Every structure is written in C-alpha cells, then in structure tokens.
Amino acid sequence: MTNPCLQDTAERVGRDPARKLGWDDRVVGTVRIARQEGVVPRRYAFGAAAALTALDPSFLRSETPARVWLDPLWRQVAAGKEETDAVLGLIETGRSHLKRWCDSGFQDMEGFLAQNN
Asked: Which of 7, 44, 78, 88 has the most CB atoms lying inside 10 A of its own CB?
C-alpha cells in the first residue's frame, strides 16, 4: 500500500491474525476472491502462512497440515471441499516458501519471491 493517507502502524496491521484468517476475512477471503478471478494469490498465501506462524510459531516447522490450525477458525463455514482444499494447498505452499525464506536468512523478499513463483 502506498496511500499516504493510511496511517496504520505495522503493529495495527499485524494485530489479530486469527480474525484475518477467517474464511471470508482479509487474508483468506482475498485468497478466495483472487482464485475466483483466475489469479494465483501466492503472496497472500505466504502472508497466511506468516499469520499462522504468528499465532503459533510451531506451525512453520510442523508437519501437521494447515487444516488443523484453520479448522477452528473456519468451523462455521459451509464451503465446498474443492475450494477448501485449493485454499489449504496454497497456504501449504506459502508455508514451504516461508520456511525457505527464513532458512535463507531473510534474503531480499522481492528477489526470493520472484525465484519461487
């Protein structure tokens, strides 16, 4: 975002990641809308993985599927299996990229993401 009128701090933007991971909310909702429009939302999936890691740091290195973390946030959702599986797959890919980015010593993110698309 480059709008100078938005004065959000990083702290405020990162606040309450569980809510932002809701099925129809900011991060996952955007992943879903992008998919509907034929866009692969790689960066939002990366962000979803980062938000899950903020909620529980063990998520990043865990072999446990993202579904285990997200089911409690999505339990009220009546989504189809195909869409749910596609969103979870994107978030798993985001987790893989986030792991590699962390392991790389946090190299330049733009370059890293360009290499990993």
From this structure: 44
Residue with tokens 């509907």: 36
Residue pLDDT, tens place only, 6-31 = 665 555 556 678 888 999 898 999 99
- Containing H/E element for 100? helix 81-103
**Where do we find the tokens 């990043």?**
60
Q: How far is CA 17 from the centre of its chain?
A: 10
What ranges make up the beta strands (E) of the chain?
A: none
pTM above 0.85, yes or no: no
The token pair that represents 105 in the structure block? 């010593």
Q: Could you write out the DSSP letters of every residue in 35-90?
A: HHTT---HHHHHHHHHHHHHH-GGGTT--S-HHHHHHHHHTT----HHHHHHHHHH
